[in-house]
Amino acid sequence: MGETRRKLTKATFDNLSNEKKLMILQTAISEFASQGFDHTNINIIAEKAGISVGSIYKYFGSKQDLFLVTIQQGTEVLKTILQTIVPSDQSFIEKCRDLIKAIQKSSREQQQLIRIYSELTSVGNSDLVKQLSYEIEAISAEMYTELVKEGQRTGEIMKDLDPAMVAFLMDNLFISLQFSYSSEYYLQRFKIFLGDDIDDRDTFVLDQMVRFLSSALKA
Fold first, then answer.
1. Which of 16, 33, 47, 81 has the fewest CB atoms nearer than 10 Å to its CB?
2. Which residues contact 136 (CB under 8 A, 6 or more apart)?
3. Phi first, then psi: what are they for 123, rounded to 5°?
4. Residue 4: is its pLDDT beyond 60?
């Protein structure tokens, strides 16, 4: 996984204005999120973005490359959130509280980006997909593991817990929360467990999750 990843965009795309790049990527994200990878049509992306189909292939080597670039946009959002919160001087629980609040906010604002994560399983089993998947998960794994280790150093978390295992469990919890705000199926599941108004009870969800993490991990 340490090898240099093949560049997904061509120089012609890199030389476009930021406005045009954003238009193309936002159009692609919208189509991939609503249609899925297999059923997304490059011709429709081009038409909605106001460019020719030929231009798409001047900017990206394939439909898969364009899709993986949209995945990278979501990775940057996640990285920004984690890098802002995890290294701070707050306590473990305060950081968890901020992470959950950020997840609640970003999951609603970035619904399409979150939905297309699940589409990674639809684009084949190439080394490129494996590497990109690894990079996405490695961000969470590294940051959450460090968060737990710091909590153990400060005495907030039991020292006999394995940091990587706790990080894995936390990530699963947070991913489930992300989908509960961005996926119609998971939102319905959320409502079945907690009531039809749960989407409007962010403070309740935040407090309950923080109390759960605190009671499960505290020294």
1. 47
2. 71, 74, 75, 78, 117
3. -105, 25
4. no
